[in-house]
Amino acid sequence: MNKKPIVMAAIGGVLLFGTYAFSPAPPQGEHENNLKFLPKDISHDDLMAVMHSFEAATGMNCGDCHTHSATDPNKMDWGADTKHKETTIAMMKMVQELNKQYFAVEGDFKDNYLQSQYKVSCNSCHNGHEEPNNMVTIPIPEKR
Fold first, then answer.
1. Beta bridge partner(s), residue 77
2. Do 32 and 78 meet the contact criterion of CB atoms below 8 Å apart?
3. What is residue 10's three-state secondary structure?
4. What is the pLDDT of residue 30?
5. What 3-state DSSP class applies to 26?
6. Contact of 132 with 94, CB cutoff 8 Å
């Protein structure tokens, strides 16, 4: 039995593992984007939590607000502005203002949103749909 391919594969595996195991982690709070409303120093985990909550609240996904890279269509250009992204920023400002004005919730959008401090959120109106769901979910009494 020829042991050379096995030894070469083992060495390759060790080199590959070493490359990933000892490569520096990306600095927290540095994102390849152009955050306009969320804090620039937001952690990657917090940013993903906010983005995934938007997905659940609106029934949309990453590609609805972000676009593919012009240089590599297999990658996303997270920093590019799109119509949906601009609308989302406006909606975030609206959610923050509604909660401040009517429910006295002060402070940072990210913290309030992730800690469920807001009485009105994206889900309040969208309820899992791209467009706000204005369907009445309880029976309306008939006029007599």
1. 67
2. yes
3. helix
4. 47
5. coil
6. no
Measure the CA–CA gap between 53 and 142, rounded to whole angstroms: 37
Distances from the Cα of 96 to the Cαs of 3, 5, 64, 65, 100, in angstroms? 65, 61, 23, 20, 6
Structure tokens at 27: 């600095």
Residue with tokens 């609308």: 87
Note the pTM of the prediction, 2 decimals.
0.71
pLDDT at 25: 47
Contact 120, 98 (CB under 8 A): yes
**What is the DSSP-derived secondary structure letter of residue 140?**
P
For residue 106, the SS3 value is: coil
The confidence score (pLDDT) of residue 34 equals 80
CA distance 124 to 130: 12
The stretches in the chain having pLDDT less than 70 are: 1, 5-10, 12-33, 136-137
Triad 25, 26, 29: Cα angle to 5°: 135
Q: In angstroms, how far is CA 143 from the centroid of its own chain?
A: 45
CA atoms within 13 A on the CB side of 55: 11
Per-residue model confidence as pLDDT tens digits over 19-48: 555 545 444 444 556 899 999 999 999 999
